[in-house]
Amino acid sequence: MIKLKNIVKVYNPKKANEFEALHSVSAEIQDSEMVAIIGRSGAGKSTLLHILACIDSYQEGEYSIDGTLIKGLSERQYAKIRNEKIGMVMQDFALIEDFTALENVMIPLNFSKKKIKGKKEKALAALRSVGIEELAKKPCNKLSGGQKQRVAIARAIVNDPAMILADEPTGALDTRTSAEIMELFKALNEQGRTVVIVTHDPNAAAQCDRAIEISDGKILK
Ligand SMILES: Nc1ncnc2c1ncn2[C@@H]1O[C@H](COP(=O)(O)OP(=O)(O)O)[C@@H](O)[C@H]1O
Ligand SMILES: [Mg+2]
Q1: Which atom of ligand 1 approaches the CA of 41 most closely?
Q2: Can you spell out the DSSP letters for 149-191?
């Protein structure tokens, strides 16, 4: 379970351009829930998602995953949590364009210190589960937007995390491809994974169990 309690996020603290992006945000997300984070551009959605993903810090409050407080950990501890618990689908895919689909999906496996048996087989299985195993050897710059998003999702699930976080995963896709990608997230959720999707697409939000709405850095009740 994910628990946020009175989270305050300040960008550039104590500098002239200091900006408080989240003001005392509290929320809970249960295991196996599928939740949308909605709100206008600049509301603080990505900021919140980055904190959930353990790729950004916060100044006040408490964030815990399965009872473990995510605060003041060493870089190594953060990396371990990210690697084991979290699959992140970044905005605009964030793939290495001249790597093949397979090479992109193998990146998180190569970060892990553990010797993972059959890395290639694992990556191929992730590509299979998002329906594009046959594209494994294609460079990403030859793929369509929808195919790139599938590669990004395969990369997010290759370590079999309990939680998948996605930032505007349908933002750059046409209506039909968006619907297909949402079906894929729903399938991953039905397999028991917690899914959190930042979106300002009402159709995407409507397919989640519920939505958390954020406005000017505050959660609307
Ligand atoms: N690295 C940063 N430095 C300073 N301000 C930032 C930074 N990232 C985001 N912000 C500001 O924080 C607010 C929330 O941004 P963000 O979380 O990206 O919003 P959203 O994803 O809802 O569009 C915005 O006003 C944005 O300008
Ligand atoms: Mg954003």
Answers
A1: 23
A2: HHHHHHHHHTT--SEEEEESTTTTS-HHHHHHHHHHHHHHHHT
Q: How many domains are contained in the chain?
A: 1
Integer Rg of the chain from CA: 17
Nearest CA to ligand 1 atom 12: 21
Ligand 1 atom closest to the CA of 17, numbered from 1: 4
Distance CA(21)–CA(18), nearest Å, equals 10
Element (H, E) at 46: helix 45-52
pLDDT digits (tens, 9 = 90+) for 73-124: 999 999 889 988 999 999 989 999 999 999 999 999 987 666 667 899 999 9
What does the pLDDT look like over 38-77, one tens digit per residue? 999 999 999 999 999 999 999 999 999 999 999 999 999 9
Q: Which ligand is nearest to the CA of 215?
A: 1
Our CA dihedral for 137, 139, 143, 147, rounded to 10 degrees, sits at 60
Of ligand 1's listed atoms, the one at least distance from the Cα of 49 is 17
- We report the CATH number of the domain holding residue 13 as 3.40.50.300
Range of the domain at 62: 2-219
- Residue 198: name the closest of 46, 77, 85 by CA: 46
Structure pTM? 0.95
CB proximity list for 76: less than 8 A, separation 6 or greater: none
Q: How far is the CA of 19 from the centre of ligand 1 (A)?
A: 9
Q: Which amino acid is at 85?
A: K
